[in-house]
Specification:
Blueprint lengths: L3 H10 L24 H28 L10 E6 L2 E3 L2 E4 L4 E8 L10 E6 L4 E6 L2 E8 L5 E6 L13 E6 L2
Parallel strand pairs: 1-4, 3-9
Antiparallel strand pairs: 1-2, 4-7, 5-6, 8-9
This protein binds copper (II) ion.
Length: 172
Amino acid sequence: MTTRAARRAQLRDLPPGEALPDKPRRTSIPDARPRPSKLRVAAFLAIAALVIGGGVYLAGNVFMGQRDKTNVVGALVVGISMDGFSPNVLNAKPGATLTLDWWNEDAPMHLTGGIHTMVSDKLNVRLELPAQSRKTVTLTAPMAPGDYDFWCDSCCGGKDNPKMHATLRVEA
Ligand SMILES: [Cu+2]
């Protein structure tokens, strides 16, 4: 107990002429935990904002900035939007399997069911791509050369809208 009241009580009980030894002093140890000043708080917030902002920026770049590039080996980058597929002609050798890094930056509220699709009976595909995402999908070219139509049927008029169609062109 080293409160002032306790010390005063001890002093009172001492015989006259005697003093308590000095209280152990702690001034040689710098205060390890200063109360944060407003400046420190501001600096912390500024750094936090930089770190978080930088993270958001980088994350955005991974998706938005590299939409025309891909980390998927051998993949063809194909975008889908309300303007259709981009590119809208894909070339393949007969029987080849195309790997597509398929991306969609449209917001869910603009898309029926929140998705774009890639549909073709002849190519035997019915693929879905959620809003604001990208995924790796494959298309297998038929053996017979020719132009094979595929389309998005989930938005913008779907199959009835010529803009929502694209072609897999199979050439030997
Ligand atoms: Cu669509």
